[in-house]
Amino acid sequence: MSSGISFSSTDTPPPLPIHRFTVDDYHRLGELGLLTPDDRVELLEGWIVKKMNRRPVHGFVVRWMNDWLQSNIRGGFLVQCQLPITTQRSEPEPDLAVIRGAHSDFRDRHPSGTDCRLLIEVADTALTKDRARATIYASAGVEEYWIINLIDRQLERMTEPVDTAYNNCLIYSIDDEVEIRIGEHTIRLQISQILAT
Asked: How far apart are CA 125 and CA 52, in angstroms?
């Protein structure tokens, strides 16, 4: 799947004075008050990237999916909404994440990629950016990544991470049902529940 945008750690930088940040650098900027929640940024492969504006439909789908996951996820997993996960060179804040573990496991750290059973991004104005995130998530060992693509009215499901890519990508249309096993339980989602107008 071509994204047209890349967060590869080997990208050629622009011909300008720039600085690529580590995750620790990024944390220090927050501790020093140089970055605040009002800045609406995240760290992606060493670059501090501005978050896109969101339309009301984005909020609708995020809230609906959060409720659906909270209602269906069983013991041993947590659901978090628009909170950080930490990888080697990034600290993205996916719209939704299903995390292995208990609340006490994350008192002193954010979840890592390998803690994540499923990450979900809802794409309404930043589809290219959300597709590019697949490289970050696969590299970090995130088991499964969904893009709820509001532009094309489909769900893009990526599984089987190997190195910097997912080996398997399936597209679900509005009339389809997606099934996922989380722990000992299988849950099913009718795509029309989130994409019907």
From this structure: 7
